[in-house]
């Protein structure tokens, strides 16, 4: 796991990761539901789609759009076990611990918070 400051500096240098932005629909959904509800969704997505030792369709389990968490996952390289290994040093082939799952949600939260701080 990486510290958030160095992680986000590295993510900003990636053309692929930096291109992800919330569209108006996702931003509205985030604002309407509120961050706590969206983070509940993130916890569930992480537990179901990333935490198992073997993930069905790894690398394709996270849609590119359709929910603010999905966009945040691609922007923060928390979208699949391969990206988690490369960017966050979370080893593939074993179940994620609760601490590791919580770390992933914190990373997603950090990315989403900037949209809530933007002027309307």
What does this 3D model show about the protein?
By secondary structure, the chain is mostly helical. It has one domain. Helix content is 61%, strand content 0%. The N and C termini lie far apart (34 Å). The mean pLDDT is 93.
Index terms:
mainly alpha; 120 residues; single chain
Concise overview:
With 120 residues, the protein is mainly alpha-helical.
Low-pLDDT sequence parts: none
The coarse silhouette is globular
- Rg estimate, integer Å: 13 Å
Percent of residues in helices: 55-70%
Please identify the structural class as seen in this structure.
mainly alpha
Share of β-strand residues: under 5%
Summarize the topology.
Blueprint: H1 4-12, H2 15-18, H3 24-33, H4 35-49, H5 68-75, H6 81-88, H7 98-116
Helix pairs in contact: 4-7, 5-7
